[in-house]
Design brief:
One of its GO terms (molecular function) is DNA-binding transcription factor activity. It is built from nine helices and eleven strands. The protein is α/β, with parallel strands linked by helices and 317 residues long. Helix 5 links the parallel strand 3 and strand 4. The protein folds into three domains: 83 residues, Arc Repressor Mutant, subunit A (Orthogonal Bundle), CATH 1.10.10.10; 99 residues, Periplasmic binding protein-like II (D-Maltodextrin-Binding Protein, domain 2, 3-Layer(aba) Sandwich); 97 residues, Periplasmic binding protein-like II (D-Maltodextrin-Binding Protein, domain 2).
Length: 317
């Protein structure tokens, strides 16, 4: 039984006339009549009674009409859902993110994405950069948001946002009275920082910058969470060099100051490259990337991000 047979039958039932029904479904009358006969043969019962003036449904035909309409409606919904899925408008999206992005960037992206794609279920997972890369390779997440690019050839990435480092100081620190600092001003300070294994590229970039200024930071305390590090700053344990958007965390006892010539840190989106025979990138991932770019470039009033050029969805290998 084909959907066209059901469409022909519904048209005939509603028009009660072979000629008008044939015009409605854009076939000749003979083809419509043959389609109805084939349908009756397949069902095994008479569905319509034919007279010279009109067509009437049999009791079996009346029942069949209810099911035919429901089947056609379900088929239309299935087709529409497939089309929307192809455009990234329905489905499920699992997004990994490093903890810091919860304080800036991620809330605005997710809020806007849910507004634009309410039929897509978004699952958020807080993971380290290494955990995200493993989860992407294993298919546990669809897209990750990290600080700095990845070098895994199985993963594609796109820069979304660039922000400089700033100095987080105890509020009572003598340098807190200045509006802008140089990295050399911190050469004699104790530092609090992440363990290198947690954010190796970020860690190395800061260490190289300090080395270029003639000193190696004296790290007296490590912690894995941003709020913990900033709490250590507030307690006077040391200074910290977070990315600028962490200045949103207005902790008592902590002040933030710009740093001249500070390194700019990239926030990047990462996803698994398509395997042979697969679509280049899942539509929901493409939609998420587009929303993230617009939000972080300031098009939706989210932050003071520096716009980046739009890159190809699937960068060359």
């Amino acid at each position: 039984m084909e959907l066209r047979h059901l469409r022909h039958f519904v048209a005939l039932a509603e028009e009660e006339h072979f000629g008008r029904a044939a015009e409605r479904v854009f076939v000749v009358q003979q083809a419509l009549s043959s389609s109805i006969r084939n349908l009756e043969e397949e069902v095994g019962v008479q569905l319509v009674t034919r007279t010279t003036r009109r067509v009437q449904l049999t009791p079996a035909g009346e029942e069949f009409l209810i099911g035919a309409r429901a089947t056609l409606a379900q088929a239309a919904q299935t087709v529409e859902r497939a089309r929307r899925a192809a455009q990234g408008e329905v489905g499920r999206l699992t997004v990994g993110f490093v903890s810091g992005l919860a304080f800036g960037g991620l809330p605005e992206i997710v809020r806007r994405f849910r507004e634009l794609y309410p039929a897509v279920s978004v699952d958020l997972r807080e993971l380290t950069a290494g955990e995200q890369e493993a989860a992407l390779r294993g298919g546990q997440i669809d897209v990750g948001l990290l600080l700095l690019p990845v070098r895994d050839p199985a993963l594609a990435s796109r820069p979304l946002w660039r922000l400089p480092l700033v100095a987080a100081l105890p509020a009572a620190h003598p340098l807190a009275s200045r509006t802008t600092l140089r990295i050399g001003d911190l050469s004699q300070e104790d530092f609090v920082f992440f363990p290198r294994y947690l954010r190796a590229t970020y860690f190395d970039q800061v260490m190289h910058w300090c080395a270029d200024a003639g000193f190696t930071p004296h790290v007296v305390q490590e912690a894995i969470e941003i709020p913990t590090l900033l709490s250590l700053v507030a307690a006077g344990v040391g200074v910290f060099l977070p990315i600028e958007f962490f200045a949103r965390l207005a902790l008592p006892g902590v002040v933030y100051r710009p740093l001249e010539g500070a390194p700019v840190i990239e926030i990047v989106a990462v996803w698994r490259r398509a395997a042979a025979g697969e679509q280049s990138t899942r539509p929901t991932v493409q939609a998420f990337l587009q929303v993230a770019e617009r939000v972080l470039s300031g098009e939706n009033g989210a932050g003071e991000a520096t716009p980046l050029p739009v890159l190809p969805t699937e960068p060359p290998r």
